[in-house]
Write a structure and sequence with these properties.
The protein is 5% helix and 41% strand. The chain is mainly beta. The strands form 8 sheets. The protein has a 9-stranded antiparallel beta sheet. The longest helix has 6 residues. The chain is globular, with a radius of gyration of 18 Å. It starts with a strand and ends with a strand. Bound molecules: alpha-L-fucopyranose.
C-alpha cells in the first residue's frame, strides 16, 4: 500500500517509517538522523533495539541464585538500556526476505558472556516484518548458555504529524492499563504499583499527551513534566495501545504479548542535534516501549524476566 520502512544493521535501528495521512500524503512518522555518524554518537536510542535489559536497573546491580552481578553504570549510578555497548550500539547481521504478501529483515547477534556485565552467551534473533495489511511485526528471540536477564524492546520515537511538522502534545493516547509503576528521583521504579484511577495517568478512554506537561501530579513533574513510566498491560493482546494525531488523521495501534509498556513522552529530547532538519526539542517524539517491567529483578513481586539456560526468550509486538 506504499508504506515504507527503512532500517540499518547498527542497533537494528528503524530510521524511517513512511505512511500516508488522511489526504494520502506520505511522510515519515519516526525520529532519526541523516547520517550513520550521528547514530554512532547519539544517546537518544532513536529507533534502536534495546537489551539486554530495557529501562533502568537500580545501582546497576542484581543477584542471580545468590551471585551478585555488577553492570555498567551509564545513567548516574544506575544501568540503562543495556549499558554503553547495549544492543543499540552493536552491528547485527542482517538478511532481508520477501514473499508475496510481506517483506522484512532478520537480524542476528551473539552477545558474549560478560558484555556490559551480564552473564552468559546469548544468541539473538530480531525480525522486522511489514505485510500487505500495513502491519509491522517485531519478533524477538533469545537463548542463553547460562542464567541471565533478557528484556528487549524497540525504542522508536513516534510523531504522527508527518516529517516532524508539530510536536506530539496534541496527540491522543489510549492505554488499556489500570496501573503504573511509581518512579524515584532517578526515574527507577520504586516497586510500588499505583492505580491510574482519577489521575493524569488514566489513559483508558484516551488522553492528550499535553495532560502530563500541564499536570500537578508529582510523578509527572519528576519525569520532567510528562511521562516516563511503565504501565501494566492486560493479557488480552487486543489493541491495548492506540495513538492518534487528529490533525493528520494518522493512527497507530500496538498489540504486544509483553507485560508492560514504558510510555516516555520525550521530556529529555533537548540536546540531540538536528532530527531530519528539525532541532531536537521536548515532546518531539513519543516512545511506547513494550517490555517486561523494568528492574523486576530487584522486586520479586513483579513478573520476572530472568532467562534460564537453554530456555527460549520470545516476545512479539505488532504495530
Ligand atoms: C527512555 C526513558 C529514559 C531515557 C531514554 C532515552 O526509555 O525511560 O528516561 O531518557 O529513554
Amino acid at each position: 500500500n506504499g508504506i515504507e520502512i527503512s532500517c540499518i544493521n547498527y542497533g537494528c535501528t528503524i530510521t524511517k517509517i513512511i505512511v500516508p495521512d488522511r489526504n494520502g500524503n506520505y511522510e515519515n512518522i519516526v525520529l532519526g538522523y541523516e547520517t550513520f555518524e550521528e547514530y554512532e554518537k547519539g544517546t537518544a536510542y532513536f529507533g534502536a533495539v534495546i537489551g539486554r535489559a530495557a529501562g533502568r536497573i537500580k545501582g546497576a546491580a542484581f543477584d542471580l541464585d545468590g551471585i551478585p552481578y555488577q553492570l555498567q553504570q551509564n545513567n548516574n549510578r544506575n544501568h540503562l538500556h543495556g549499558g554503553f555497548e547495549g544492543f543499540h550500539k552493536v552491528l547485527w547481521t542482517a538478511e532481508s526476505f520477501e514473499t508475496d504478501n510481506k517483506a522484512g529483515v532478520k537480524f542476528t547477534y551473539t552477545s558474549p558472556n560478560g558484555e556490559a556485565g551480564y552473564p552468559g552467551n546469548v544468541s539473538l534473533v530480531v525480525t522486522y516484518t511489514l505485510d500487505n495489511f500495513d502491519e509491522l511485526t517485531i519478533d524477538y528471540h533469545g537463548q542463553t548458555d547460562q542464567k541471565t536477564l533478557l528484556n528487549m524492546t524497540n525504542h522508536s520515537y513516534f510523531n504522527l504529524s508527518g516529517n516532524l511538522k508539530r510536536d506530539t502534545l496534541k496527540h491522543s493516547l489510549t492505554l488499556k492499563s489500570n496501573s503504573f509503576l511509581e518512579l524515584d528521583q532517578e526515574l527507577v521504579p520504586t516497586g510500588t504499583i499505583q492505580d491510574v484511577e482519577g489521575t493524569d495517568f488514566d489513559f483508558r478512554i484516551g488522553r492528550l499527551i499535553q495532560s502530563g506537561a500541564e499536570s500537578g501530579h508529582q510523578q509527572c513533574i519528576l519525569a520532567g513534566k510528562g511521562y516516563d513510566h511503565p504501565f501494566l498491560l492486560g493479557v488480552n493482546h487486543d489493541q491495548e495501545i492506540f495513538l492518534e494525531d487528529p490533525e493528520s488523521g494518522r493512527t497507530l495501534t500496538i498489540e504486544t504479548d509483553e507485560a508492560a509498556v514504558v510510555f516516555y513522552s520525550g521530556t529529555q529530547l533537548t540536546s540531540h542535534g538536528e532530527i531530519y532538519g528539525v532541532p531536537s526539542r521536548k515532546y518531539l517524539g513519543i516512545c511506547l516501549e513494550t517490555q517486561g517491567l523494568p528492574d523486576a529483578v530487584n522486586h520479586p513481586h513483579l513478573p520476572s524476566w530472568i532467562l534460564d539456560k537453554d530456555k527460549e526468550y520470545s516476545s512479539k509486538t505488532k504495530y
